[in-house]
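To start, one record:
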Amino acid sequence: MSTVQEASNVSSLFGAGTATASKKTDEAQDRFLSLLVAQMKNQDPMNPLDNAQVTSQLAQLSTVQGIENMNDTLQALAASMGVNQMAQAANLIGRAVLVPGDSISPAQFEDVMGFELPRPADKVTVEILDAGGSVVRSLELGAREEGVNVLAWDGLTGSGEAAPDGQYSFTVNALQGGQPVGSTVLHLGLVNSVSQNSQGVQMNLAGNESVSYADIRQIF
């Protein structure tokens, strides 16, 4: 999408939001004035409307109008951000991304895995499991810094033999001073296409996997 097209789309979105806000404001004003006139026509002559009451009602109307205008503006802003994010996501088609997930394979380009640590760990162990849940390889990584850490499996089992083709999974055990450190496991996925739904922009990966654009930790 060209810059001119994006600007046109954003402008139309904000224009639509402004028109909606204006319509709602006019409707609210009409309702308020109708109610106010009805109150004044039917007020008790011995107990007329207090000026303070009318002022209070006007203030409430102004508050409601402000909230409606703000909501419409925020919706238009969110829509424009979605347009920009969709354009950025489209540039990732055909590229590999690191996203939450524990699948791995000894095949080339499917042997990359990672994990994200909220704080440093002085001991990190990665275990690769077969489809039955048995450990086929244990990797002692030593100390690792906080943030995203990436590594590749050489496709060998603990006995040094080549692991059969197939899908495997992995787990991460991180410790700091003997205390567990929570981690998020990450795997590599190839972006086939992008789409948008109520959850925002989605990346459709090979293997019928779909993740949010916000879940991407690293791009290769």
